[in-house]
Amino acid sequence: MLDWTDRHCRYFHRLLNPTVLLYTEMVTTGAIIHGKQDFLAYNSAEHPLALQLGGSDPAAMAHCAALAEQRGYDEININVGCPSDRVQNGMFGACLMADPKLVADCVTAMKAAVAIPVTVKTRLGIDEHDSDEFLWRFTDAVVDAGVDSLIVHARKAWLKGLSPKENREIPPLQYERVYQLRQRYPELPLAINGGVKTAAEIAHHLNHVDSVMVGREAYQNPWLLAELADQQASREAIARKMIPYVDQHIGQGGRAWHVARHMLGLFSAQPGGRRWRQYISQQGPQAQSAEQLIEGALQFRESGEKH
Predict the structure, then answer these.
(1) Active-site residue numbers?
(2) How far apart are CA 174 and CA 153, in angstroms?
(3) Which of 157, 165, 245, 300 has the fewest Cβ atoms nearer than 10 Å?
(4) Where does the DUS-like FMN-binding domain lie (predicted)?
């Protein structure tokens, strides 16, 4: 979810659902340790919040986990799922499935450094290595190291030949293989991820696992989060609740578009949804007033509904 679930997106999503665990974009240890900006910044309203960490050096991972705990994060998640070339070149992400001992060493070091949960998000396999034995060799290692929870994307990753986007769509979903991990680790909290689009699908998965991670659908159709929370506020009310936040960001030297771009899907599959997206997309990049932008988009949407 790189460049998607930034702090502005998470603030918006928290308004839609007060209880779901939100995850940051993947942040690398190098960025946290050597970067010039504050990669651990977030709004206190985002809690509960997990930091998704990319890296493979146990000492650096433990150091960054400790920094995140000091900043108040509720969980540290190790990314062993991202298949991009840039991630592979940095020796983190899905390619780490080939080195279960190294990931286990990271878990051990991080567990020694923090009291908050340390979790791992992984795939079912990589390239030609997607047997149950390959998966279990990896999961056994991190479970033995004391990982607090596993999140499993129910697809394997092709490290060669497919783009990150294609890796989210082309490898077939194999939910049953994730369900099988419940029998292998009956006491370990287990979450499933991949291709989940509806509240009914979430309810089905919860018959087999402890929790469900939703990524793309929650971004493209954020009202799904509201449905899960039995949200009483309307979409329009949620949009207006974002006005003070956007204005504060503008006042700090930011642009309205930094926030508003994450709101494009608020009226997904609703009457006037296309007009909402159109107005925000066209006016958002130049907007200087959150109220003018959001109220203007709501009025433009409603004017389309009447014709």
Answers:
(1) 82
(2) 9
(3) 165
(4) 1-292
